[in-house]
Amino acid sequence: MTESLSDVYYRQKPKDQREVIKGTRVSGLENESISSFMGDMYQNVNIYDNYLILFGKNFVSPISDAGRSFYDYYLTDSAFIDKDWCYKLEFSPKRVQELAFKGEMWINDTTYAVRRVEAGIAQGANLNFVQGFEVRQEYAQVRPEVWMLVKDQLVVDLNIQKDKKTEDPDRTKIQGFYGRRTASYRDFVINKPRPDEFYEGVEEVVVLPDSNSESEAYWERNRHVSLSEQEQRIYRMVDTMMTIPRFRTYVDIVSTIVTGYYPAGDLELGPYSSTYSYNAVEGSRFRFGARTSNTWSKWVELEGYAAYGLLDQEFKFGLGGKTFLTKTPRQIVGFYFKEDMEQLGQSQNAFREDNFLGSFLRRNPNTKLTLVDEYKAYYEREWFTGFSNTLTVKHRTLFPRGTLAYLRVMEDQEPEVINSITTFEVALNTRFAYKEKYVSGEFTRVSLGTRYPVLDLHLGFGMKDVLNGEHEYQRVVFRVQQRIPVGQLGNFRYSTTVGRIYGPLPYPLLLIHSGNETFYYDDLAFNTMNFFEFLSDRYASLFLEQHLDGFLFNRVPLFRRLKWREVLTFKTVFGRLDPSQRREMELLPGMYDLNNGPFAEAAVGVENILKILRVDMLWRLTYRDHPNVPLWTIRAKLYLNF
Q: What does the alpha-carbon distance between residue 267 and residue 499 come to, in Å, rounded to a whole number?
C-alpha cells in the first residue's frame, strides 16, 4: 500500500515535464525508488496516445489515428454528464487476440474531448499472466476548451495461469496478485510558465528529502480523497504480514529463485546454480559460496567462495566486497580477488563457467579454459540517473588450460612456450541512458529501460612494467543500443559496437568475438560461432532483432490459440587483424581473422511457447567452410514475458 502527493509540471514547447513528490508513504518497506516508481510519470496511461505501452506491449488506443483498422465502434447513447452533453461510443477489437481494448467512452458534443472512458483488455489478447486489466478515467474542462484528466483508476489481476471456475468450494484457488492504482488531480494552473532553469536536468521524477517522514496528520490534511476502511486495513495488514513465519518463508523462496541466494540471517548462501558443474578440464566441480545480507549491513557487502575440481585436483576461490561512500549521489567502491577458471570470449549474457545448466547444454566439450589470477578494485559514481562512470584498476595473470597453449613464433626455431601472460590495466567506463528508470534494492537495481539510445564507452590502458605488467596497449570500445516500440509490429531492438586495440598483443588479449558452444540461445553472442574462432584488433558489429508479438500468428486460426509470437534476428561483425599481432603469439588451429569479409548469421524464432520458452532456427551465412561449426542449428532459451 503506497501513497504519494506530487506537484506535476508540463510545458508543450519545448516539450518537457517534471514531477516533484512532496510526500510518500509505503507500507512494508522503505525504498525511495519504489516511491519514485509509483509517481504519476511512471504509471500514467494517456488515452490520447496512438499506442499505450502496457506490460511492455503496444496496445492500440481506441482513439488512435489508426483506430478504424483495429476497432468496431457503436454509437449507443447520449446524455448529460454533469453539465456536459456527451455521446456514448462503445468499442471492441475487430480481430481476436489483438492487443486492443474493449469498453466505452463518452465524448463531449462541442469540443469532441473525451469526458469519460472505461476500458479493459479484450478477452483472448495475446498477453501472459494478466487475467484482467481495467482503466477508468474522467476528464473535466478546467478552462474553455481545455480538458484535463481529473481521476484515473487502474486495476490489474495477475496470475500464472487462468483460474478456472469450479463447483467444488474446497478446491484451492490459484494464488495471484491484484494491483490497484487511483490517482486524482486538482488545482490546475494554466499558461503560467516556469523558467527554463526549472526543467534543467534529466530527472523527470524528483523525490524531496524526508518526503517519507510525514505524519498521519499531514496525510489527513492533504489527501484528495480520504482512505476507505478497506485501505486503512491494508496498511495494518501488510506491516503485520512481514512478521508471519509462513509469509516470510514464501518471501525467502521467491528471493532464492530470483537472486540465486538463500537467505540465512546475516548471510546469503549461493548461488545455487553453481553448486555443481562439470567441464573437461576440471571434471566434476563443487562450489560453496556466501555473501552478507542486507540485515547485516545496508552499506557494506562482503562475499566469497571456494571451489574444487576432482579432475585437476585444484582449489579455486574468490574474495571481495563493496561499500557505498554515499547513496545520494550513488558512489560505490569495491575490491575483489579471485583465482579461478574463465571462458574468454564469452558474452556477458552467457552462463557462468560453473553454471549447472551450462555444463549439460554444451554442443562441444569445454576445453578452451583459462586459469585467471586477478586483483581488481573499482570506483563507481553516478552523476545523475542514467549517467555514470566506473574507474577500474585490474591486475591479471592468465594461464592456459585444456587445449589452449601460448606459443611465440621464433624464426628458424621451435616455437617458444609461454607459461603465462600478466597485464596491469586502468579502465574508464562511461554509460549514458537518457531518462532511464530504475527500481533499486540496497546494492543492486533493475532497469526499467528508456526509450532513448543507451551509450557505453570503454577506455582501457595497459601499462608495461607496472606490477609486472608485460604489455602496453590502449583499448577503445563504443556501443549504442536501443529498444524501439513499432506499434502493432511489436518491438525492434538494435545494438551496434565498434572497437579498436592499439599495440601488439597475444591472442588472449585481442578482441575475441563472442561465440556460443551451448544449445542455449545467447542474445549477445553469435550462436553459430565457436569460442576463439574469430579475433580482431579492430571491428564493428551490428545486432538486429524484431519481436513481432504474434502479428502474423494471431491471424492464423490454428496458431492463434497457441499464442506464439515471431522473432527475426540478424547479426554480423566486420573485423581486421594486423599481421604484426600474429608475431606476438601463434594462433592455434580453429582461430581465424575476419580479413576476408564479415561474419554473419540470421535466425527465425518462435517465443511464448508454453509461456516460458523461445526456440530459434539459425543459419550461418559466411565462413561455412570452417571445421566443426554448425551451418544451421536450433537454439532454445527460457524467456518469461508478458
A: 40
